[in-house]
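Teaching assistant's notes for section 4

Start the section by putting this record on the projector. Ask students to predict, before seeing the second block, whether Solute:Na+ symporter, SSS family will look compact or extended. Collect guesses on the board.
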Amino acid sequence: MGMLSFVAFTLLVAVIAWWSTRKTDEKSSDGYFLAGRSLTGPVIAGSLLLTNLSTEQIVGMNGVSFRDGIPIMAYEVVAAIAMVFTAFVLLPKYLKSGIATIPQFLENRYGKSTKTIVSLLFLLGYAISMLPTVLYSGALAINTMFDIPESLGMDAESTLWVTVWTIGIIGSIYAIFGGLKAVAVSDSINAVGLIVGGSLIPIFGLMKIGDGNVFRGLKTLTTALPEKFDIIGGPDSDVPFWTLFTGMIIVNFYYWGTNQAIIQRALGAKNLKEGQKGLLLAAFIKILGPFIVVLPGIIAFYIFNGDLANADEAYPMVVKAVLPVAFIGFFAAVLFGAILSSFNSALNSSVTLFGLDFYKEYINKNASEIQVVKAGKIFGIVLALFSMGIAPLLYGVEGGIFTYLQELNGTHSVPILAIVIVGIFSKRVSGKAANIAILFSVVTYLITLYVIKPNISFLHLMGILFVLTIIIMFVVSKFYPRETDYSQEYTKQVDIVPWKHLKPVGYAIIAAVIGLYIYLS
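Reveal the predicted structure now:
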């Protein structure tokens, strides 16, 4: 029964995605990479949320909350503030330049070498951290929900290889041959399913604890496990409180403001107004996020008495324990869609970056649009195979996959955010300064985190490095300044009149976040 509803829903999404993209021009790079700049607010919001909300998030964050309680929700809630910042400050600047990728903006601002270094960092980040964690967490969820190791008569780790490769092959076909429009449409359908399905899990979970009454369940849970609901994380927590003002801001501002896989959605906006509406709508929904990505982990802790071998299995175990059988197939299909979505988006962005920033730039300068798209596709296949090879090796990684992912991401998030922000707000900082600062940041971060291993949260380390990286940029520019002041020209490709309700809505979202923290402390 579960398997049947799984297959039916998955096929339905594929048919709708095919039907709605059959008229898009996929041969031009604007059509393939930016959906022809036609996206409206609700589509952007849905695609932003679903690209972000995937199994590594749902499985990984609930794994952390199983172990550590509610402080991990900072990743969700601070995101709302970062999206408001992007809508107010960054998006108007990007759309003014009419860019397709963040590295293009950096090329206009700093020069070719900076663009190449950053493209390389993005690609390495996708290959080593994002694509493998998406595949691993997705495979883990599906294996646990459907008892696949038992039905194949294999152990958990061997089954992981089978599931990872199955998901990877299906995802690659979608991403490499469909382009952004196919990815964005299937995202929007799955987003609805994920938000509905994701909300059912904590509701059914609380009903199970409270004998059919959600509020009684919540009361039982907060009374039994008060320590899990203290939002001010202690020094041993995954998110100590003061990191909210250091690394947490950097992680989120980088992710929602400068990460190609995410911002590509907003760059495809019809005009600035729709882009801002999409970002703020997504920010509002983000505040409700902890209900889906944090609470089930605490419910799991209560139901299983805190006794699970691998904390990353907390979420799929809860789904199996509380969802009626008929729903499990539907929910697994939605999760499967979310896995494909994140995998596709990172793959689609990698193909875009490689095609435009490496192939056309260094390998074949006179390539036609069709050749660029083709070269990108071949690269996508290689990258997909590589990440399918790494993913199963993450089994039982210490501290859970979510923390593994965030730690590795610091390698590129700190320098990229620093050079984008300095690039927007200063006129004199030079390309040479940016390049030196990036190399300093990457090398220092990796050595400090993996060799010196200091006794502070990696989030604080990111905060300190961010400040140092910016200082280095200004110091080096004193000796090697730009020849002329940078001035951004308006390409007139996109209408950049801001949304008239931008300020009141933006301020309301920030007030809501602060209110939530005060209430939960």
